[in-house]
Write a structure and sequence with these properties.
alpha/beta; globular; 9 strands; 198 residues; seven-stranded parallel sheet
């Protein structure tokens, strides 16, 4: 990924993911630049209280992604419960109510795959704790398109099935603990700033 100016981080988690996301958000500084899109399996009747909770954990802006919204730096986007979140080539979102994928809507695979096809080697993908295989194929697509892929070390995941499913499918660029994930994202952001400001 030589050109860092358009990078995007996509994160997928299911069971146990709320705790992981809080840990991640608390570690990100106020000047963290690369936008993050997070997909979690939540019930369709989940209200916006979880968005407010996440906003209280970080100085960055946390919000649910909206239809046709353009992705902005320094923002954490959460996939709205009950909708698939697609990432378009113009770095905007599309929300759909299509059939569930891997029994989930939003599906991590859908977001990862559309990010891979739309943004190619600018995508940084992470798949963490969860109880099924959603996200494994999507993360593979990110690697196939030249993006950078990370999987949570299963022995450190609250629910290891999701990261294990990815590791059974392919070898990611890195297998990380939560601390390793944070350090890698901070390093990518520093690189982003050096390229963007030069």
């Amino acid at each position: 990924m030589e050109d860092c100016k358009s990078r995007l981080i996509v994160v997928g988690m299911s069971a146990g993911g709320m705790k992981l996301l809080v840990t991640l958000l608390q570690a990100l500084p106020a000047d963290f630049t690369i936008p993050i899109v997070c997909v979690m399996h939540l019930s369709e009747d989940t209200g916006d209280s979880w968005v407010n909770l996440m906003n209280n954990k970080t100085p960055l802006t946390v919000k649910e992604a909206e239809e046709k919204e353009t992705i902005q730096n320094g923002t954490i986007y959460l996939a709205p419960p009950g909708y698939h979140l697609l990432i378009e080539g113009d770095r905007s979102f599309t929300l759909t109510y299509d059939e569930r994928v891997n029994y989930a809507r939003p599906s991590i695979d859908v977001t990862f795959e559309t990010a891979a096809y739309s943004l190619g080697n600018q995508v940084i993908g992470f798949l963490g704790t969860g109880g099924n295989s959603d996200g494994a194929k999507g993360l593979l697509r990110i690697k196939e398109r030249g993006g950078y892929t990370m999987v949570q070390q299963p022995s450190f995941a609250e629910f290891p099935a999701m990261p294990e499913s990815a590791l059974q499918l392919f070898e990611p660029n890195k297998i990380v603990t939560v601390e390793g994930l944070i350090n890698q994202l901070l390093a990518f952001d520093e690189q982003y700033k050096l390229v963007h400001e030069s």
